[in-house]
Design brief:
Length: 66
């Protein structure tokens, strides 16, 4: 359905139904997810990730593949 078809149908409605259509459209627009992307915050996960000693040591089970 083209925009012109929608507009013509809208124009043919009585005023009380036009108000209901506009309210419905407003509700639809409010329910859309926000398109604004949040900017990443540096240091947000600081202290939450810990690399333990020996992390880079070779794994015994994979020695034959190295």
């Amino acid at each position: 359905m083209s925009e012109s078809e929608v507009f013509l149908k809208f124009q043919s409605l009585p005023e009380d139904l036009k108000k209901q259509v506009v309210q419905f459209m407003d509700n639809l627009l409010e329910s859309l997810p926000s398109k604004r992307k949040k900017k990443p915050v540096a240091g947000l996960a600081k202290g939450k990730i810990v690399i333990k000693d020996g992390f880079e040591d070779p794994i015994e089970d994979f020695k034959e593949y190295q």
